[in-house]
Write a structure and sequence with these properties.
The structure is a single chain. The chain is about 50% helix and about 0% strand. The chain is mainly α and about 280 residues long. The relative contact order is 0.14.
Length: about 280
């Protein structure tokens, strides 16, 4: 009996400790303070956390139910703030905030690292042919467009023509710039083979940048702190969805994630439409 009482006491103390370590739970609000860079940075890391990709259907239902119980004041005793924050993180990472439907895994913000990394690597492959250049630029912009669409603001329907127009504009501009620059570099006879190869490695930079502006026209992203990523190639530095992915290959992004900029940020909602790889 003494051992049982001790065990129960230890469990209660552990739960209390876990609850005290986490800030008081606020439904629909970000866990970390948005008034500081560090708080916004932690919030952004939560959004792109790839571990949520492995959440089971049962765990998702439990998280949703826990939040419903909290919302209706029927929460069972002993639930900690940490458990509530975790439940909210899971729900927001998997379900669209407007439709409440599951977002296809490769297009979730939490999937931008594992699914975006291969594309970043492909963009930076050396000695690319015309076909491979077109393929990787097309795949990059297609993935960006799908992420934007999957995390769109579904409360304000946008005509499909606008999405298609933005998508085509992004693909055409990216492919045109990449192919054009590669052709110019290859025709530059004054460059040595080594210099030519080095310059070609930087072609994705100008190709992806302008295309990101075209992708924004694909539709308004939801408020997911970081809803619209763009795979930009950032030499030696990465810090966003697709750019966050790889630690080895230089990843990139055309803009600084809105959730990391000074000033208050919205609660948990899709990453700002300016978040790019």
């Amino acid at each position: 009996m003494a051992d049982t009482a001790t065990t129960a006491s230890a469990a209660a103390a552990s739960a209390a400790s876990a609850s005290s370590d986490a800030p008081p739970f606020q439904l629909g609000k970000p866990r970390f303070q948005q008034t500081s860079f560090y708080g916004r940075f932690r919030h952004f890391l939560d959004i792109i956390d790839p571990r949520t990709l492995f959440v089971t259907e049962r765990r998702l239902r439990e998280a949703v139910q826990l939040l419903e119980d909290y919302k209706h004041g029927t929460l069972r005793p002993g639930v900690t703030n940490e458990q509530l924050w975790s439940a909210q993180k899971i729900k927001q990472a998997i379900l669209h905030p407007d439709t409440n439907e599951k977002i296809f895994m490769p297009f979730r913000m939490s999937g931008y690292i594992p699914f975006g990394t291969p594309i970043v690597v492909g963009l930076l492959l050396p000695n690319q042919t015309l076909a491979s250049t077109v393929f990787w630029q097309w795949l990059n912009q297609s993935h960006n467009a799908c992420v934007n669409y999957a995390n769109r603001n579904a409360t304000k329907p946008s005509p499909a023509s606008k999405f298609i127009q933005g998508y085509l504009g992004a693909v055409i501009s990216a492919v045109s710039i990449a192919v054009g620059l590669n052709v110019l570099v290859q025709k530059a006879n004054k460059f040595t083979p080594a210099t030519r190869l080095l310059i070609q490695r930087f072609v994705p930079f100008p190709a992806v940048g302008p295309a990101g502006d075209g992708a924004d026209a694909s539709g308004p992203a939801h408020a997911h702190p970081g809803a619209t990523p763009d795979r930009h190639v950032h030499a030696g530095e990465d810090g966003s969805p697709a750019g966050t992915p790889p630690a080895a290959p230089p990843c990139a992004k055309p803009r600084v994630p809105g959730s990391l900029r000074p000033g208050p940020a919205a609660g948990h909602q899709p990453l700002p439409a300016n978040v790019r790889d």
